[in-house]
Amino acid sequence: MDNYEYCDDCKRIFIENSSCPFCESTQVSELYVKSPVNILGTKVKGRVFKLSSDGIKVLVVDAQNNKSIRDYDASKLKKVL
Ligand SMILES: [Zn+2]
User: What's the gap in Å between 19 CA and the centre of ligand 1?
Assistant: First the structure.
């Protein structure tokens, strides 16, 4: 199982690496289940539900409070506070 990390500078998410593949920052932190994330290019937010080598499952709650679990590639996600 691969560990995922996020960049403290640009907040992009990637498979464990010594530096960020997007901005080359070396300020990276481990990404955990339940971390809040945003789907890049959208206003959709959710929380990490499961991390696997195939990708990241995200629990998304929409404005009507409907919950769904969606699969994303790490490159489609961004860590939020
Ligand atoms: Zn970065």
Answer: 8
CA of 12 to the centre of ligand 1 (A): 6
pTM for the model: 0.90
Domain that holds residue 32: 4-79
What CATH number is attached to the domain comprising 53?
2.30.30
Interior/surface letters 10-44, b for 16+ CB within 10 angstroms, e for the rest: ebbbbeeeeebeeeeeeebeebeeebebbbeeeee
Query: For residue range 48-64, what is the model confidence (pLDDT) as tens digits?
Result: 999 998 899 999 988 89
Look at the chain and report how many structural domains it folds into: 1
Cα–ligand 1 centroid distance for 64 (angstroms) = 33
